[in-house]
Write a structure and sequence with these properties.
By secondary structure, this protein is an alpha+beta fold. 53% of the residues lie in helices and 22% in strands.
């Protein structure tokens, strides 16, 4: 998946020049099918996930997915000659979870490590967390989400994420 996305970005001058719409289309086509956004949202909410109704869980997962897609797409438009090296992965035949470690480099100048956590589901392997420079994508949101739920309830959190998505769509960060 990563190599497919990077190959397309390397060849697509529109994405390299900042065309976020095209980057979003790429992420939706190549990345989204490999992520478990419901599980990611549940992890990001922590214990507050159980306070949400099924409809709220659906809305939260959709809004969080949109937020992550926009964030990732914006990052792709800043891509400049990065390479990804995969570190050896330990996995047994019956494992239901696996951790893939990578090192991303830009012309040997800057490097950062990431960890991608995968879980095996009935429909195949899905990513449920990405850790970059020691910071987990899902737990990074946990404090903010928890504060919003305590202050304004689950509906307040849905509104907060929705508003952030609208700001990102309008080009505001």
């Amino acid at each position: 998946m990563t190599e497919d996305v990077l190959t397309i970005v390397r060849q697509d001058k529109d994405i390299q020049s900042g065309n976020t719409k095209k980057a979003i289309e790429l992420v939706e086509a190549k990345v989204l099918p490999n992520f478990n956004f419901t599980h990611m949202t549940a992890l990001a909410m922590g214990k507050d996930w159980n306070k949400a109704t099924p409809e709220q869980k659906k809305q939260l997962s959709e809004e969080f997915q949109t937020l992550l897609v926009r964030t990732y797409s914006n990052a792709l438009t800043g891509y400049k000659d990065q390479t990804v090296r995969y570190k050896p992965t330990k996995m047994q035949a019956g494992d239901a979870e696996v951790v893939v470690k990578t090192e991303s480099c830009r012309r040997e100048i800057s490097r950062f490590n990431s960890i991608i956590r995968w879980k095996k589901l009935a429909e195949g392997w899905k990513v449920y967390d990405v850790i970059v420079a020691g910071v987990s994508l899902v737990t990074n949101y946990r404090d903010t989400f928890g504060q919003e739920v305590r202050a304004n309830g689950v509906d307040g959190l849905i509104k907060m994420i929705s508003n952030k998505n609208k700001q990102l769509e309008a080009g505001k960060k």
